[in-house]
Specification:
- The chain has helices at 3-17, 23-29, 32-64.
- The mean pLDDT is 82.
- It has a domain at 27-65.
- The longest helix has 33 residues, at 32-64.
- It is an all-alpha fold and 65 residues long.
């Protein structure tokens, strides 16, 4: 075996065993309920801030008239 074949063999072995693990990805694949709950807990407060801010702007505009 020549050295390039040995390197190629080890590189191929390393690539085939590599598996990325991410905490965020695991939340949506392994623990779906907790992942979606966390996503909604972030989304709804931000959505409420925008809605109430918009309502405040509208009420200020209506009071100026």
């Amino acid at each position: 075996m020549n050295i390039l074949q040995v390197i190629d063999y080890y590189q191929n072995e390393m690539e085939s065993r590599y598996q990325e693990s991410s905490m965020l990805t695991n939340l949506f694949t392994d623990q779906k309920f907790i992942g979606w709950l966390g996503l909604f807990m972030i989304f709804f407060p931000i959505f409420e801030i925008f809605v109430f801010q918009f309502l405040e702007w509208e009420s200020n505009d209506n009071n100026k008239r």
